[in-house]
Amino acid sequence: MKRILVIEDDPDIGDMLGINLRDEGYAVEIARDGTGGLACLKAYRFDLLVLDLMLPGIDGLEICRQVRRMPHYQPIVIISAKSTETQRVLGLELGADDYLTKPFSIPELIARIRALFRRVEAMERESQAKAGVMVRGPLTIDPVGYSVMLEGRPVALTLKEFELLLFFARHPGQAFTRLALLDRVWGYSHDGYEHTVNSHINRLRAKIERDPGRPEFIQTVWGVGYKFVDFGENRP
User: Fold this and answer.
1) Does the pLDDT at position 36 exceed 90?
2) What's the rounded Cα separation, in Å, for the pair 219 and 231?
3) Which of 8, 43, 198, 232 is the most buried (most CB within 10 A)?
4) Are 55 and 80 in contact (CB under 8 A)?
């Protein structure tokens, strides 16, 4: 669930944003002034910030400056009654990703938030691809370092278990027969060796699945073989 912080001193607007964003499935926190909003940003990590400019305490532009000095990137959408071109340009130059003028359309704001999340996810995927690292749900697989992390914890795999997991992760959502896996991972596809695939998958499941009897990652496709779950199928 994406976490959004709304910093808005108008209680009617803040409450309206909270209701509508929660209806979209986001976890929302609301700060009523700049000082409290900046304290939230320093204490917790959010996926996106919706920021008014005219705030009591610290103003929105200063918050924007400070957010862009933080080590992690988070999108910023400014909502403001200041509608001049100069104000919009200033907000964008200080690091805002988008700027909406009050009064604004809630559906338009939600559409822009979704677009920003898609852009961030695309950037993360491109960065991971360049680094050679793959993220599949809670699994992080490093093909160069031959390492696997599950929810941040290292998983000890044999070389063949690693190669099997890597092959699956590179082909999410695709079903493979045991003979096809023998050919692609082991380099041979002779009949009678399918038990090799079964035993390796059983050991792999024991190491990465919470419940090997009800696997979340490597699933059995009855009458075919196995497939690795495509986590992208469940994204909003």
Assistant:
1) yes
2) 13
3) 8
4) no
Contact residues for 198 (Cβ-Cβ < 8 A; gap 6+): 178
Q: What is the model's pTM?
A: 0.58
> CA 232, CA 236: separation in Å to the nearest integer?
9
Return mean pLDDT, the chain: 87
Give the number of residues written for the chain: 236
Which is it for strands 139-142 and 134-136: parallel, antiparallel or unpaired?
antiparallel
Identify the CA nearest to 227 among candidates 206, 190, 201, 203. Answer: 201
The rounded distance, in Å, linking the Cα atoms of 21 and 49 is: 12
In angstroms, the CA 65 to CA 96 distance is 9
User: 98-133, pLDDT tens digit by residue?
Assistant: 889 888 899 999 998 998 898 888 777 766 666 778
- As given in the structure block, the two tokens for residue 128 are 């991971």
